[in-house]
């Protein structure tokens, strides 16, 4: 794959973090406020750059409050597909919109693995989110076992086709997709090599084109899984990678901004080998 300058100018470049089950509301407010000041010059000087932070549900109001308009998108980590009803413990898309939440993660590997979310469940969640006016970051990725059998592409194509089934192409401007191989996520994960990412994201782009024609080319594809400042640029240098979904490395302002700078260097093709 060729380096950054071939990234489509039509696609935004997105970098953000999933805070998982971390931070109190006060901690999230402080994190978002500090991050907003730290990245303001970068946001102003980089056309097409979008940043996002996905705190736990309890932190969403405080995080939205701390994020100025046109700054960092605040995202939820999950939602229920029904607009309301008898679903004890669940949160509906219109409730998130009412808080001023902009984005929602759908299908994170931990939701699939630990909470048994299936592809048809994720299809319902994605359609409900879009219907409510949320942006969606759909996460897909194969397990180590699937990679071992050489069926990673098939897994990801199936996940995309089911999750996106019935999505009206007019809603594509609200969709972004993250490739996160399950074997690369979290403590104990094995960081992917750029070649691993290319092997899956090129067919992902083809699947999006198969589903939506040329409009499928406008959907940003992000990479996530053990990304840090040392390897971020090697992923964003790939022409089909339009940004990053961070976990641990994005949980401090210093960590987030270092990865962001490395990602932008990679994107512009000026990343040196081990920046
Ligand atoms: P990690 O998490 O960067 O800590 O591996 C990524 C994710 O879960 O999205």
Fold topology:
Layout: E1 13-18, H1 25-45, E2 49-54, H2 60-66, E3 73-76, H3 93-99, E4 103-106, H4 109-114, H5 119-131, E5 135-140, H6 144-148, H7 152-163, E6 175-179, H8 194-212, E7 221-224, H9 232-236, E8 243-246, H10 253-267
Parallel strand pairs: 1-2, 1-8, 2-3, 3-4, 4-5, 5-6, 6-7, 7-8
Helix pairs in contact: 1-2, 5-7, 7-8
Commentary on this structure:
By secondary structure, the protein is α/β, with parallel strands linked by helices. The protein has ten helices and eight strands. Helix 7 packs parallel to helix 8. The longest helix is centred in the N-terminal third of the chain and has 21 residues, at 25-45. The model is unreliable at 1-7 and 271-275 (pLDDT under 50).
Features:
275 residues, eight-stranded parallel beta barrel, 10 helices, disordered C terminus, binds 2-phosphoglycolic acid
- Shape label: globular
Mean pLDDT: 94
Number of helices: 10
Order of helices and strands: EHEHEHEHHEHHEHEHEH
Fraction of residues in helices? Answer: 40-55%
Bound molecules: 2-phosphoglycolic acid
Terminal CA distance reads 19 Å
- For the biggest β-sheet, the strand order reads 1-2-3-4-5-6-7-8
How many runs of DSSP E, i.e. beta strands? Answer: 8
Q: What amount of the residues lies in strands?
A: 5-15%
| Low-pLDDT ranges | 1-7, 271-275
In terms of structural class, how would the helical and strand content be classed? alpha/beta
Radius of gyration: 17 Å
Q: Give a quick account of the main beta sheet: strands, pairing sense, barrel closure.
A: 8 strands, parallel, barrel
């Amino acid at each position: 794959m060729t380096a950054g300058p071939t990234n489509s100018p039509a696609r935004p470049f997105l970098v953000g973090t999933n805070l998982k089950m971390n931070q109190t509301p006060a901690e999230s407010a402080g994190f978002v406020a500090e991050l907003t000041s730290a990245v303001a010059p970068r946001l102003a000087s980089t056309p097409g750059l979008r940043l996002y932070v996905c705190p736990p549900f309890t932190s969403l109001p405080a995080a939205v409050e701390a994020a100025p308009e046109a700054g960092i998108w605040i995202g939820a980590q999950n939602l229920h597909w029904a607009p309301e009803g008898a679903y004890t413990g669940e949160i509906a898309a219109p409730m998130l919109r009412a808080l001023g939440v902009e984005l929602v993660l759908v299908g994170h590997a931990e939701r699939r693995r630990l909470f048994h979310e299936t592809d048809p469940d994720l299809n319902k969640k994605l359609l409900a989110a879009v219907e409510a006016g949320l942006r969606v970051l759909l996460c897909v990725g194969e397990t180590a076992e699937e990679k071992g059998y050489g069926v990673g592409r098939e897994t990801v194509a199936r996940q995309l086709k089911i999750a996106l089934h019935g999505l009206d192409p007019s809603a594509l401007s609200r969709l972004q997709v993250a490739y996160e191989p399950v074997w690369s996520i979290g403590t104990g994960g094995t960081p992917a090599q750029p070649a691993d990412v290319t092997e899956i994201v090129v067919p992902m782009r083809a699947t999006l084109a198969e589903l939506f024609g040329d409009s499928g080319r406008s959907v940003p594809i992000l990479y996530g899984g053990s990304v840090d400042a040392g390897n971020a640029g090697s992923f964003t240098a790939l022409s089909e990678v339009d940004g990053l979904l961070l976990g641990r490395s994005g949980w401090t302002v210093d960590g987030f901004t270092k990865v962001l700078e490395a990602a932008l260097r990679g994107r512009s093709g000026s990343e040196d080998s081990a920046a």
